[in-house]
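idk why but the lab printer keeps eating my pages so im just putting this in chat instead. protein + adenosine-5'-monophosphate-propyl ester:
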Amino acid sequence: MPYPYQITSLEQYHNDYKRSVEEPETFWADVAENFYWRKKWDRVLEWNFTEPKIEWFKGGKLNITENCIDRHLEKLGDKPALIWVPNDPEDRTRIVTYNRLHKRVCQFAQVLINNGVQKGDRVCIYMGMVPELSYAVLGCARIGAIHSVIFGGFSAQSIADRLYDAQAEFIVTCDGAYRGNKDIPLKSIIDDALIGNRTIKRVIVYTRTRTPVSMLKGRDVWWEDEMEHAEAQIEKDNVITMPATEMDAEDPLFILYTSGSTGKPKGVVHSIAGYMVWTNYTFVNTFQYKPGDVFFCTADIGWITGHSYILYGPLSAGGTSVMFEGVPTFPDAGRFWDIVDKHKVNILYTAPTAIRSLMSYGLDPLKGKDLSTLKVLGTVGEPINEEAWHWYDDNIGKNKCPVVDTWWQTETGGTLITNMAGVTPAKPGWATLPMPGVQPLLVDENGKEVTEPNADGLLKGNLCIKAPWPGILRTTYGDHERCRTNYFATYENLYFTGDGALKDKDGNFRITGRVDDVLNISGHRIGTAELENAINMHAGVIESAVVGYPHDIKGQGIYAYVIYGHMHGDEEQTRKDIFQTVSRVIGAIAKPDKIQFVTGLPKTRSGKIMRRILRKIADGETENLGDISTLLDPGVVEEIKNGKL
Ligand code: PRX
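predcted complex ->
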């Protein structure tokens, strides 16, 4: 049995779940035994949610890259670790074996050292989905530098904010990135982000698109030159000598910025050992991965899904992971199915928004595509509507592949509530049961556990978790108090997820969506406060309020109500100007879908915007807006209703 902790029956699930709750320390120690430690831990778990302080495997010494690469070399050295699929199907696929990955990661680790990077330093990575991005991430981990990957859709301003927050001194980027028929000038965006910056010491630039770039003397260096030099240093007679740095179990592994209900994204910090154990355990169990399976997670490494299920989960399990540079609809809507066919993919993991988008092209793109290698399908990022679930099950899985609906978050490191493929039952639209180690409960606004079912026989409340699992976030970078107030202070002694959920009598959970001021656009989190800040930066905007509304493809769309001063051009032109501002401040991913100009916003006498009313109007509701008599100016509601887009 390659994974002794793999759950293979419903009965075992129940037994393991019970044990994980009753005796978490021995349960997780048994799982952790299956990794490579330089020194074993002194204590499995120490925690309280009041500070919060969460420590797993404290005293343990390890390096995650030895677990993801070195320990596999003897048996799997010539096996593919990564199958890299380029944006343009005419370009060459690259198969990165474990041996090759080892060499490249070591080489890049040496490059980092040569450029002055030390253990604990923050390295910002802003690259397209090229294999070199994986080498950069793992190269950081090898020397104990903390990586902070920023998705290629974020703007210079967003990068500058993140660089400042992380106090980063190093950047790894590309000249440009291909995404469908677009060519994104990453280095030039970095240059904009660095105007006036005095802390960045080095920018390492990998050549992907051959877009002309400006290289600043003394600061910018080429990836290729640096790698060549490093190769000569670490390789002798085909043997690589580049030891991994010994790290403490609780040393930080990475920072990943994510939006919350306040204006500023926060840097979620994961630490090494717990995250490693959790991504591996959840990968092997959720997807029922078997050695030799080809796993294709369609996410971008700029998001947590890519961190956990393109890199750390599959690689720590000695798996084969497909890394895809492009988009689902380029050159046509059959791209995923081509990749499944060509690379004999066994497990496909994607987002409901991608499924809905592909559904809209009908079944033609599936013609002639052999999908018979598929065994398991997965979804992540947002609630999946039943229509999309069934389309996926019928047309992609041909009703033979279990569909796992995995609920989790940047903060949770890996899947928390999900069915396990073929082991625990699926229920369309439901994430179903918690993973071992995860103790969810539903509470009302006062933090009291909900125990009375509603008229449909379901419990309904805000989703919290009672105790830590190994992959839980440890802090928010540079501001532990923010971590406490965001996640651990709403309800005493509970981790609050920000999601609402339903629970049925069998213990299954259905996630209904965010209950805080966070939108989920195509599976990506964006805070309304962050969006409003961006819109308000446009010179003509006096005030704005942003809400989500149901969107056929994206799940949620962005609806902005804007009070505008003096309009110079027409409304359409002004909308475009506002789009431009948002793209500059946050990035193109945050562009509002609708902007309605209004003369006022529904506010209470204390000045609080009544978003509930705005949400209902954006949703198409004109009656039943609830009590509006407490508003400062109830008349404004009528105007907004009449102007709805
Ligand atoms: O609202 C939930 C939704 O996505 C949020 C987390 O977003 P992020 O940190 O960007 O991570 C996305 C990838 C893990 C959650 O709070 N969400 C994620 N998965 C699901 C989901 N909602 C319903 N069902 C899911 N399977």
